[in-house]
Amino acid sequence: MPLLNILQFPDPRLKLKAETVTTIDTEIMTLVDNMFETMYEAVGVGLAATQVNIQKRIITIDVSEDRRHPLCLINPEILVRKGSLIWEEGCLSFPGVYAKVNRASEIEISYLDNNGEQHLLKADGLLCVCIQHEIDHLDGITFYDHLSPLKQQLMRKKLEKNRRRAL
Ligand code: GNR
Ligand code: NI
Predict the structure, then answer these.
(1) In this structure, what CATH number is given to the domain that contains residue 81?
(2) Given 89, 106, 134, 160, which residue is catalytic?
(3) Using a 6 Å cutoff on CB, does residue 6 contact ligand 1?
(4) Structural domain contains residue 139
(5) What is the pLDDT of residues 118-135, one digit of tens each?
(6) Which residues of 142-151 are buried (b: 16+ CB within 10 A; e: fewer)?
(7) What's the domain count of the chain?
(8) Burial track 32-70 (b if 16+ CB lie within 10 A, e otherwise)
(9) Cβ(54) to ligand 1 under 6 A?
């Protein structure tokens, strides 16, 4: 199965807003499979379709230790947000850099799974942070957008430095 290319900051396509999925057909099911393969290969805990240049509201997640608990969220909606926490986040579109971001500490969401069945889910901890990070991607927002201008500048410099080293 082909691995999908993950867009890297500052690719302007990371700012596009994803559209609601209307029918879960074989094309969507194949995309979900390919997103899981891409996410596991890249060793990420989540991946949003926006990051692989597909503007559809689809997220793959696996926050388990054994990496054998895939979770696919289609058209996710946050219904309830409670509390706040600060978590050190990373992002596959920003390799090698990390930053503390403020998020809700508990959420309740609705979503469709890859069979089109509707679910409600309560989340806290890493899962809660990851879902908020991924839904942001679907709205064209990255963790960079949550940072102060100073921290944004620091992150851009670190990314440049990492890229020079990778050449
Ligand atoms: O792999 C990832 N780790 C992570 C760690 C803390 C908070 C969020 C994340 S998501 C990230 C993968 C990614 O970029 N998803 O969009
Ligand atoms: Ni990300």
Answers:
(1) 3.90.45.10
(2) 134
(3) no
(4) yes
(5) 999 999 999 999 999 999
(6) bbbebbeeee
(7) 1
(8) bebbbbbbbeeebbbbbbbbbebebbbbbbbbeeeeeeb
(9) no
134 is catalytic: yes
The stretch 85-107 carries a mean pLDDT of 98
Q: What is the mean pLDDT of residues 69-98?
A: 98
Distance (Å, rounded) from C-alpha 49 to C-alpha 110?
A: 18
Query: Terminal CA-to-CA distance of the chain, rounded, Å?
Result: 28
Does the residue 127 lie in any domain?
Answer: yes
Q: Return the C-alpha torsion angle 12, 94, 153, 138, nearest 10.
A: 50
Residue 130 belongs to a domain: yes
Per the DSSP assignment, residues forming a β-bridge with 99 are 89
Whether residue 20 is contained in a domain is answered as: yes
Determine which residue's CA is closest to atom 4 belonging to ligand 1: 90
The atom number, within ligand 1, closest to the CA of 93 reads 14
Q: How confident is the model at residue 108 (pLDDT cuts 50, 70, 90)?
A: very high
- Going from the Cα of 105 to the center of ligand 1, the distance in angstroms, rounded, reads 16
Query: pLDDT, tens digit, for every residue of 147-156?
Result: 999 999 999 9
Ligand 1 pocket member 133 (CB < 6 A) = yes
pTM above 0.90, yes or no: yes
Domain of 58 in residue numbering reads as: 12-166
